[in-house]
Amino acid sequence: MPKSLPGRPVSLWLDTTPETGFPPLPEGLEVDVVVVGGGLAGLTAATLLKEAGRTVAVLEAGRIVHGVTGHTTAKITALHTLIYDHLIRHAGEAKARAYGEAQQAAIEQVAARVRDKAIDCDFVRSDAYTYTESPEEKGRIEAEVEAAQRLGLPATYLEDTPLPFPVEAAVRFDGQARFHPRKYLLALARDLPGEGSHIFEATRVLDVTPGEPCQVTTDRGRVAARDVIVASHFPFADKALFASRLQPHRSYVLALRLDGPPPDGLFIDTGENFSLRPQPLPDGDTLLLVGGEGHRAGEGGDTVARYQRLEVWARGRLPVRAVEYRWSTQDNFTVDRIPYIGPTTQHSRHLYVATGFNGWGMTNGTVAGMLLRDLILEGDNPWAAVFDPSRMNLNDVPELVRQNARIAAHLVADRVHRTDPDTVGPGEGKVVHTLHGNVALYRDEAGLIHRLSPVCTHMGCILHWNPAERSWDCPCHGSRFGVGGEVLHGPALRPLEKK
Ligand SMILES: Cc1cc2nc3c(=O)[nH]c(=O)nc-3n(C[C@H](O)[C@H](O)[C@H](O)COP(=O)(O)OP(=O)(O)OC[C@H]3O[C@@H](n4cnc5c(N)ncnc54)[C@H](O)[C@@H]3O)c2cc1C
After folding, report:
1. Is the CB of 479 under 6 A from ligand 1?
2. Whose CA is nearest to atom 2 of ligand 1?
3. What is the CATH architecture of 12-72+183-244+337-391?
4. Considering the entire predicted model, what is its pTM?
């Protein structure tokens, strides 16, 4: 029997907002732009394009803002742990400057929309901090402050923060922000349908054929569009081989009720092990969201223990009264720490992608919307070269080789051991070798056994059991499946076979 965990297993954002009910795609539609995916990147792009006079259809496989954006911690900041010193050294000062400008512009884009449309989404300005408790890391903080100041970003060096425990050093960015991501995006979604634009839910896109117009094939029928944006988090139907360039990384969040008010600010440590931010509740109290315990998706091992370690860390430093919520999610990381936003390949003229937000999708997803709007309307944007998905830096090759060797090792070397299905207890899952071949076996609380193929329908890797979320997770590209075999997270498009 799996160990029990404190807190409700749902994200605070989903628990405090209503469910949407947009219809599925009807046959025979044609629009200017199809946007695949109703997360922050997709809904922002769709909104900006509709405002610019284009007809848009958002096609969402499940319900909008249930994906990563429904499970984020939603800090809106240009302070991406420590990045600007790294970018100056690896990409050059001009690109580092453009990256920082894009992030700051994204914060202002969100702030202006919240103000102009009077969106009630708990948006507040807040300072962001990257801190270290280690004397050895002090130099990295100093270098980041110097780099950020050189790029004109609002950085200050500190040795004291609002955190209730001492730090060695910190960098602070002033005037950043936080919000309730679902309240913000459901407001955008309310304004999208009409004047030839639509949101369709329960509509999974299976393929996109570029052309004039592009043809988008879904499980509900086809739709034609001059331009298509793939904002599905991990790209599918992947002719540009994003699967070999993206590394999904999963981490865990606890929403804690404290004795006393939580520290005011957005915090992350230099090792990206722990992230903290406050969030008000409808009952007037304010919770503290604590994130951490990250790992490569599909390789979490005992994921129950990850929540437990996060709770131990929090209780060791903060006056925790109760764990109210717990959830986890994953984001895609790129080798050079810059997202892929733009045409999918050098030759594609109407097919665009927005992915690889490196754990900072509130600003990067907003940048994606702004950049893709400009590329579609005007063919250019000052940040286009920085985020160009076709860029290639020879310095990145060794890390790409390492990543792909790891994936290859999973593909060819993951072995399934002969196991007696009786050793799988209630609420547990295991990939077992039986007389009928390999089986992903889950026994529910009532003792009923559910048998599925353990082979990921994306590229054929053997799935791993995730005990905390009760899902089958792929260690190669991060696809996830429910205990009924349904796709929970792409790039997989098809459910697992029943056995
Ligand atoms: C634990 C954690 C905390 C984070 N905290 C922060 C933070 O504080 N600040 C920050 O800036 N960033 C943060 N991030 C990152 C940020 O949340 C993500 O980068 C961002 O939400 C990704 O948005 P998206 O629109 O790309 O993806 P999603 O929100 O996942 O949207 C993609 C949508 O596409 C749909 N879809 C997928 N495949 C298909 C298909 N074939 N057809 C149709 N629809 C499809 C999905 O159902 C989904 O709704 C965090 C990430 C993690 C893991």
Report:
1. no
2. 72
3. 3-Layer(bba) Sandwich (3.50)
4. 0.96
